[in-house]
Specification:
CATH class of the largest domain in chain A: Alpha Beta
Number of strands of chain A: 15
Number of domains of chain A: 2
Number of helices of chain A: 13
CATH superfamily of the largest domain in chain A: Dihydrodipicolinate Reductase, domain 2
Strand order of the largest sheet of chain A: 14-13-12-11-7-10-9-8-15
Oligomer: homodimer
Helix content of chain A: 25-40%
Distance between the termini of chain A: 32 Å
């Protein structure tokens, strides 16, 4: 029941290779978060060849290789960086290490795919922007709650096609299951995970910018709490924020670690997108007490109420686009400025957060 | 399809008379908003006797009497106030008139049931508090989105029984259908309707205080917009707010006038109540693309996912309790302090609101 705690939740999209075998070789380095499985799977499904895996912890490497036996254990990160055939390195290291690893990866002339959240400090973001500027390489971030959810992908298509008019507000709920006994120590250390608005809030702000088509935003209000876990004093088990985009649209999101044991998945993620001509609700991972499958789009427009179940129908085009971006010098999967802006706004939300509880 | 625009949406709860015929006589005065139908129905179903109806507009009186033929047209509000057999006057006058009418009603020694929002200025609230203090009479407010929705009533019972532990957050979505051509002029005048956070926001703040068991709160942030209706410059078609209760729980709500024509009801009202041991989602008036009936409670707790459809099963105990409060000097239906605090926080949210769009 690995999907129930979400730590190694790895949804599969349709396999749509965009390159021939061997044309795009990559490595996985930094396996602290189970997201690395889904990130690697996304790349493999899009045709990339997984060559190396590295982590200082040999047990993590072995667990990874249970899924990806083709990945050869590398003796060090440097050994991967020295392999000139490797185009991209993917990492789900401890959040506070993701920035420093990326600097090394781009420094070695390779593209980088970081798990979210990519940065825990503004200095890391600043260094990353400078490195991208200097190298012209991609510093991608896998904001999986949009790019690896078929309902979220389809919502983007609907909005792009004008199905709900101008988007006025994106409202997101990002509850997660804590599963505290199964979490590593760094998960509870704020200097390592950054705070709840940086960690699981990062998905939310990325979606807001994406669905509204905004290029930037400001944080109007944010808050965090540790309501119910005094045994983990640095944990924030609740957070929320409201933002105003440069085009006038607004955002509200709530993130928390209160998914009850009775839910059939790690979190009842929802996104409600309000437009001038209709609205969309995404039930991303489950349709509570109705359907244990995820990827539900509910849309109401001028003509009626629509339930559009898209599980297995849409796929994850992000990964193929990212591969082509790396090969062709394009910026189509997720514009670099958008990737960094979402991360920056998470840092701002965390900095401005008032403490409640 | 009157229910589709919501202007005369009048849900019926189970009829549970708490008094014998004639024991509690009341009048309806001020018919500007169709809510007066549901308010009167609630009282009648609880055993009250509807004796008089008054409005300066004879056409409104006639429309009202199409439902309640037992109500005799009164020549004036004063004629009603002079009838010593009348215990309570219900009013859904223009919002800015509800306070002044209430002062007259209590001044005549009768209880008052006001439509929400009860006040559009702080002065009105202050006068009402003073009048209640001086007379000991009830100044009740029909916050219908809780007291006249069976899912909302049942949620209160579940929370009271500890079903989801300590309530941490109440999140409410209150979209409404605009139906602009059918609205009277006052609906678009801010001095009359007060602003969107006062008008339809009032339901949301009342629910927050109720479900969290808080006695007060502060408004941390609020905003309003007119995104899409420049032809009605004083209309606010969007608003939201976040509050912090005196017990540490928080609230977020969004209200808007963007219900699309394709929805089978006037608004897809939702309430999501997050607790330490589970959460509840209310789909109050419809279960989009699933069930055109309202009153759905979805609850997830430690044991599983539960869909509890309660339409026709719970009733509206508010009205019977209010009648007994008036007869017995109790304060059980909705404590007076709570009623006024909810109204006060709406005024605060409206005052503090930043303008976006």
């Amino acid at each position: 029941m690995a999907h129930k705690n979400g730590m190694s939740y790895a949804p599969r999209g349709k396999s749509r290779p965009v390159v021939k075998p061997g044309d795009f070789r990559f490595a996985a380095a930094g396996l602290d978060h189970g997201h690395i499985i889904a990130m690697s799977q996304g790349l493999v499904d899009a045709g990339a060849q997984l060559v190396w895996v590295y982590d200082p912890d040999a047990a993590k490497v072995e667990r990874f290789r249970a899924t990806f036996s083709q990945a050869q254990p590398a003796p060090s990160l440097e050994a991967i960086l020295d392999d000139t055939s490797i185009r991209l390195v993917a990492s789900a290291a401890v959040p506070s290490d993701r920035g420093p690893i990326g600097l090394k990866v781009l420094g070695a002339g390779k593209h980088y795919l970081s798990d979210k959240a990519p940065f825990t400090t503004r200095e890391q973001l600043q260094q990353a922007r400078a490195k991208v500027e200097a190298t012209g390489l991609h510093w991608a971030v896998c904001y999986s709650e949009r790019v690896q959810n078929e309902a979220a992908v389809h919502a983007g298509e609907l909005i792009h096609d004008g199905a709900i008019g101008r988007v006025l507000q994106v409202l997101g709920l990002g509850p997660h299951r804590l599963s505290a006994p199964d979490r590593p120590d760094w998960f509870f250390r704020k200097r390592h995970y950054g705070g709840i608005l940086i960690d699981i809030g990062s998905h939310q702000i990325e979606q807001f910018l994406y669905y509204t088509g905004a290029s930037s935003a400001e944080v109007l209000h944010s808050k965090v709490a540790n309501y119910h876990h005094p045994q983990y004093p640095e944990l924030e088990d609740f957070g929320d924020a409201t933002l105003l985009a440069d085009n006038g649209a607004t955002n509200y999101f709530r993130v928390d670690w209160f998914t009850p044991d009775g839910l059939g998945i790690w979190g009842d993620g929802r996104t409600v997108i309000l437009g001038t001509a209709g609205y969309i609700e995404l039930r991303k991972y489950i349709d509570v007490a109705r359907d244990e499958t995820g990827d539900h789009v509910y849309m109401v427009d001028g003509s009626g109420e629509h339930h559009i179940p898209v599980h297995g129908k849409i796929g994850f085009p992000y990964f193929g686009r990212l591969i082509l971006d790396c090969l062709e010098g394009t910026d189509a999967a997720m514009p670099q400025a958008h990737t960094f802006r979402a991360a920056e706004l998470c840092l701002e939300a965390q900095e401005k957060a008032m403490r409640v509880g």
